[in-house]
Amino acid sequence: MNPPVVLDADGLAALAQATPPPRLRALLHEAHTRHCELIVPTVVCAELGRNGAETAEIETFLARRADRHDRPAVRLEDTDFDLARSVGAILHAANASIADIVDAHVVAICVPYGGGLVVTADPDAIERLAAATPATHIVTRSPR
Amino acid sequence: MAKRKITVTVDEDLLDLAQASTLPLSAVVNTALAEHLERSARHAALGALLTAWEAELGPIPEADLVAARSAFAGLTTAAEAATV
Which domain holds residue B26? Predict the structure, then answer.
């Protein structure tokens, strides 16, 4: 099971732009070559939902279908009880506040894979939470 | 949903493990096949998206590709070290 590429709010916003940044395109190109899944915690959409314009861009992106493929390229991962429990454990271990709940989802999604590449504009926040799960190796990269 | 009986060939040790579980083997195979097809469709959709971007926006700069390869190489190396 290859480690996934997980997008936080900045990563998803960059992906949904009409002109996605070359750095993000390069990361996704490499993910495709290596058969790595592209995952967004569904709760990230709530964070972006505060901005109406970005919500519209994301809805357009997720609705985009290639002719022969009846799936978006991104898998939205809903929060079930197991994921919620993992998020809570990360917040507790990192002594983090509830304000970090979305970033904790990003980290928690990497845990079953043993790691992941997180596309984020706030690597410090992700790495602070990732330190609470030392068996999970997380690499962060900016989308821009 | 309608079901159809098929014949598949699987590794003997995997079959032993699957039959030892409480889940019906058909359900296990059905779920695994559905997940595989889902992953394949998303992989194909990502490939189509990258191709469309290349047509619209031009090729990805080589420096960005090199940096991306480096990021994944670090991820793979660390993951392999963690499993040793």
Answer: 12-83
Q: Do A26 and B61 touch (CB under 8 A)?
A: yes
Residue B55 lies inside a defined structural domain of this protein: yes
Among A76, A113, A139, A142, the residue to mutate for chain B (most B Cβ within 10 A): A139
CA distance to partner chain A, nearest, from residue B67 (Å): 8
Q: Model pTM?
A: 0.89
| Contacts of A119 by beta carbon, 8 Å cutoff, 6+ apart | A5, A6, A7, A8, A10, A11, A14, A24, A27, A140, A141, A142, A143
Tally of domains in chain B? 1
CATH number at residue A97: 3.40.50.1010
ipTM: 0.89
Q: What is the pLDDT of residues B27-51, one digit of tens each?
A: 888 999 999 999 999 999 999 999 9
